[in-house]
Design a protein that fits this description.
alpha+beta; Aminopeptidase; two-stranded antiparallel ribbon; 9 strands; 38% helix
Length: 216
């Protein structure tokens, strides 16, 4: 399939996203799920154990300092994941979208080591979450909390997770029917927003953690 960054941008605005048959496959499909995963901002909650990790300062969070490494880590096969849907073509397109200012990475660092993170696409008031990885306990979860802070500060209003799994469900993610999602998408795309890539103060992080003090 001959696709480029412009086609991918248009597809996302229609509610579609690309997936390859496998990391080494040249075949790419456009996915339009009957049920779409989203993480509502007002339902977002941080597990108590994760709040403790963040307060200990085990990790440093950065944004957009090593996008390609995050993307490649998300595409890696592991003992638990024998194949991935991110092939070379998709990786190159998202690198192009990053250079254009649309695709962003949230990175979890321990010293000089990149140990976790996520990446996705920001258009209007929507962040389309693509994938995440973790090489250390809670590293991807910390990145997800940081992402939510950035979305709220940026004025974005919709976090699309594509699918739903137990990892995301713990944070408050839900599924909505395709029609409902596309109405939400249309409204959110019209919101003028600029993804925030700066740093957060210790006080800002603590304030966010306190605002999400659920019992889970």
């Amino acid at each position: 399939m001959n696709i480029d960054a412009d086609i991918v941008l248009k597809a996302y605005q229609l509610g579609l996203f690309p997936m390859a048959d496998g990391k080494n496959s040249d075949t790419i499909h456009w996915i339009d799920p009957e049920w779409r995963g989203i993480l509502p901002f007002d339902a977002f909650h941080i597990p108590r154990s994760l709040r403790k990790v963040m307060r200990r300062g085990v990790y440093t969070i950065k944004c957009n300092t090593d996008f390609r490494s995050v993307l490649c880590a998300c595409a890696e096969t592991t003992a638990r994941r024998e194949d991935t849907w991110i092939n070379r073509k998709i990786a190159d397109i998202f690198t192009d979208l990053h250079e254009q200012g649309y695709a962003h990475s949230v990175e979890t660092w321990r010293g000089d080591d990149l140990v976790g993170g996520l990446y996705g696409l920001a258009i209007g008031g929507v962040f389309f979450g693509e994938s995440m990885f973790s090489r250390s306990d809670d590293a991807s979860k910390v990145a997800l909390v940081d992402l939510m802070m950035r979305l709220r500060k940026s004025g974005l209003v919709l976090l699309d997770t594509q699918f739903l799994n137990e990892h995301l469900r713990r944070f408050g993610a839900v599924e909505v029917p395709r029609g409902t999602y596309k109405m939400m998408l249309e409204n959110a795309l019209a919101v003028p927003a600029q993804f925030y890539c700066g740093d957060f103060s210790v006080g800002a992080v603590e304030s966010f953690l306190q605002s999400n003090t659920h019992t889970s």
